[in-house]
Design a protein that fits this description.
about 425 residues; alpha+beta; Nuclear Transport Factor 2, Chain: A; Glucose Permease (Domain IIA); 7 helices; about 25% helix; Cell_wall_metabolism_enzyme; metal-binding; Dup_hybrid_motif; protease; metalloprotease
Length: about 425
């Protein structure tokens, strides 16, 4: 009985074990099941980034800037930047514009760039805000490239009233020194800005202003201007004719450029006018003063009064440093007591060219220019002789229609500025009378 019971239990145990083996997968089945369970359709796969990380851009080597100093040369500047004369020679001789690098001026910037080993690979010559020349090392040596920028041009106007001097009035009106001198040059054949301006004179300008990156860079050309001297008004308009030549003309098309400037210096004060009977301040004798003395600080520029040729340039005990200029067959101008001469005998000069600077050489009591004007060998008063000179050049009739059309708008603008100034001065005068 017990034996039968034991055999039955054993049979049941063996049957249960067999069923568990059948239910358990084999190793191969487990692997297959695992693959089937983990594989998914392509569209269900998580997106994979197939691109490698973008490498960081190489950092540009820094630039070292050197400001050109007075008395500098390329060797000194390169040496301060850590480079030698061999580098100077390579940049100057290998690049097309290399010789231009030798023409440097105080205030300009020379920038240098080297590689990791310290070799010079690039140079920049920053001439001004608008022009930079770049020199870059390549397989064939240094090459050059000029980079230029164009400023934005805006039109502005200014009004000035003379209270003490033209220069101070121009400064008060917000004009640069260059624009004031440009205006003096425009009217230099009809107004002597040394002796003619009087208190109450007015000037009006319409001119260009140049901007770069939203900031004013400089003044540009004068478009139109007027100057009222002791009640007489002179006007000038900038005009480019059909030949491409640019000049200034009055409203009738007559050129503002005369044969001679009325004053051959920056406007200062006249210390002595034409006087044939004056007593010489050094020799104390009655020596004719056949000219005009313009008192001015030493170094003040002296201009050629007109186009001509230098017939004498030298030094004498009485004249100091002097220059004589022949203008055509009839006229000679003389410039005495110069500090320095800027032209040589035989040289051709043009009107308004700087020929020297004011000084006190020779028989001079102080810094001034002594200026003489001779017509057919006879001394003439340079402040009045212009009235006897030939008439100024006028635009041909074929240009007049285009000229009138080109100045119409700016002429109206100029007239409006004068009207506003006259009204303001009249109101100021009335208020002063009531006071």
């Amino acid at each position: 009985m017990s034996a039968l019971l034991l055999l039955g239990c054993l049979a049941v145990f063996i049957g249960l074990s067999q069923r568990e083996e059948d239910a358990s997968p084999t190793a191969e089945a487990i692997d297959t099941a695992t693959v089937i369970a983990t594989e998914k359709p392509a569209e269900e796969q998580a997106p994979t980034d197939t691109f490698a990380p973008t490498p960081e851009a190489p950092v540009e080597a820094p630039w070292e800037e050197q400001v050109v100093r007075s008395g500098d040369n390329l060797s000194l500047i390169f040496k301060r930047a850590g480079y030698d004369n061999r580098d100077v020679h390579r940049v100057v001789t290998e690049s097309e514009d290399g010789k231009g690098l030798a023409r440097i001026y105080p205030g300009q910037v020379i920038a240098f760039q080297g590689d990791e080993s310290g070799q010079l690979v690039a140079v920049r010559h920053i001439k001004n805000d608008l022009e930079t020349v770049s020199y870059t090392l390549g397989e064939q040596g240094f090459t050059s490239q000029t980079l230029t920028r164009e400023p934005e041009v805006r039109v502005a106007d200014a009004t000035g009233v003379i209270t003490s001097s033209l220069f101070l009035a121009g400064q008060k009106a917000g004009l640069s020194h260059t624009t004031i001198m440009d205006m003096a040059n425009v009217f230099g054949g009809v107004i002597d800005f040394v002796g003619d301006p009087r208190k109450g004179d007015t000037m009006h300008l319409i001119f260009e202003e140049l901007y770069l990156d939203g900031e004013k860079l400089d003044d540009g050309d004068i478009i139109a201007a007027s100057y009222t001297n002791q009640g007489k008004t002179f006007t000038a308009y900038r005009y480019q004719d059909s030949q491409g030549d640019v000049g200034y003309y009055n409203e009738d098309g007559v050129s503002m450029r005369k044969a001679f400037l009325l004053a051959p210096v920056d406007f200062t004060r006249i210390s002595s006018n034409f006087n044939p009977r004056r007593i010489h301040p050094i020799y104390k004798t009655a020596r004719p003063h056949r000219g005009t003395d313009y008192a001015a600080p030493t170094g003040t520029p002296v201009y050629a009064a007109g186009d001509g040729r230098v017939i004498k340039a030298g030094y004498s005990r009485s004249n100091g440093n002097y220059i004589f200029i022949q203008h055509g067959e009839q006229f000679v101008t003389k410039y005495l007591h110069l500090h320095k001469r800027r032209v040589k005998q035989g040289q051709r000069v043009v009107q308004s060219q700087v020929i020297g600077t004011v000084g006190s050489t020779g028989a001079a009591t102080g810094p001034h220019l002594h200026y003489e004007f001779l017509m057919n060998g006879v001394h003439r008063n340079p402040r009045t002789i212009h009235k006897k000179l030939p008439k100024a050049k006028s635009l041909p009739e074929s240009e007049m229609a285009q000229f009138r059309q080109s100045i119409a708008a700016v002429s109206s603008q100029l007239a409006k500025l004068r009207e506003e100034t006259d009204t303001r001065l009249a109101m100021t005068g009335a208020a002063d009378d009531r006071g």
